[in-house]
Specification:
By secondary structure, this protein is mainly β. The chain has one helix and 35 strands. Helices cover about 0% and strands about 40% of the residues.
């Protein structure tokens, strides 16, 4: 039978059972040494977890293992912090064989201040929701097969660095890294939908391993007055690429490929503006917008909604109905945080 466990940085004791808040464990690593398929761990944000937590057990497709942060009461959405304290190589790693399907989910957790990678894994089947990866000496997240929703990657060398495996990012933010995301291994897929990139100094989106597939839809890339060398850069031109309803703005180079990909690209309804060089071996085939995007407030990524009169409004493609270009949408002429993507309506 699955168990529910608790971890508390303020009151926990690893000699207790962990089965109630009053008997919570002290460390995340104790939980990772103990959990089995189907177990849930509530991690209380009542202090930082200054440790290296190592994944030692596995869940299953029908009984995943879930670690979730909270502030006062389980389920309140509070984010707990696991820190490398600027002295440990990683906040979380795994002790399992490469390519193991572990079926873990991490929610409302922060991985920060590792000297190397914040969350380092070569296992598969991991989901992150509302997590933050920041201020790590190397990458925020280095991973194989993962899905991320509503996560933040900031002030790392690479926000995300892949090893092998396909990846999905929905509604994530990548900012103030050197590279926002690096996903250039051969033969895999990267999907970015509704994601925002700004002030990543080298390349915001770096993808394109040989025989790979990449989908970039309704994303906003802001080079922040040429602080970014590149908005979207392909490493290899032998794969397949879709760029749809995406803003590539204010970089040195907006959208580049090492060679012409010909018919292996679907590229439409993108706004490419304010870059020193708009395209290199690339283009937006139809529905291109070249005017300034006119965000509500682009300073430090404050608000990327299309402002009144923005050329992004109703200029996107969704099968015939109206959609804005970019990661966030205007609704009935008013700003909204609702992201919508309706293909084929």
């Amino acid at each position: 039978m699955a168990n529910t466990y608790y971890v508390s940085a303020a009151t926990g004791n690893d000699s207790d059972t962990g089965l109630t808040e009053a008997l919570a464990w002290l460390t995340v690593d104790k939980a990772m040494n103990t959990v089995a398929a189907g177990d849930k761990v509530w991690v209380k944000a009542d202090g930082n977890y200054a440790e290296l937590a190592t994944i030692d057990t596995v869940g299953t497709a029908t009984a995943p293992i879930v670690f979730e942060g909270y502030t006062t009461a389980p389920g309140d959405g509070g984010r707990a912090t696991i820190t490398g304290s600027s002295s440990r190589a990683n906040c979380v790693a795994d002790g399992l064989a490469a390519g193991t399907d572990i079926f873990y989910a991490f929610k409302n957790l922060r991985f920060t201040a590792a000297t190397g990678v914040g969350f380092l894994t070569d296992c598969n089947q991991i989901t992150f929701k509302n997590c933050k990866f920041d201020t790590n000496g190397s990458s925020g997240l280095q991973c194989r097969l993962v899905g991320c929703e509503g996560c933040e990657f900031s002030s790392n060398t690479n926000g995300v660095e892949d090893t092998v495996g396909s990846k999905v990012f929905i509604g994530c933010r990548f900012y103030s890294n050197t590279y926002g995301i690096v996903s250039s291994n051969a033969g895999f897929a990267t999907v970015l939908i509704g994601c925002t990139f700004f002030s990543n100094s080298a390349v915001n989106i770096y993808v394109g391993g040989a025989n790979s597939l990449h989908v970039i839809a309704n994303c906003t890339v802001d080079g922040d007055a040429k602080d970014s060398n590149s908005g979207l850069e392909l490493d290899n031109n032998t794969g397949f690429l879709t760029v749809l309803n995406t803003v590539l703005y204010d970089c040195v180079t907006g959208y580049s490929s090492p060679g012409n990909m010909g018919e292996r690209v679907i590229s439409r309804n993108n706004c490419v503006n304010g870059n020193t060089t708009a395209y290199t071996n690339a283009t937006t085939f139809t529905g291109e917008v070249i005017s300034a995007p006119a965000f509500v407030d682009e300073v430090a990524g404050a608000d990327y909604h299309p402002d009144t009169g923005s050329p992004l409004r109703d200029a996107g493609f969704d099968g015939g109905a109206s959609m804005d270009i970019g990661a966030v949408q205007s609704v009935a002429g008013a700003a909204s945080n609702v992201f919508k993507l309706r293909i084929g309506v």
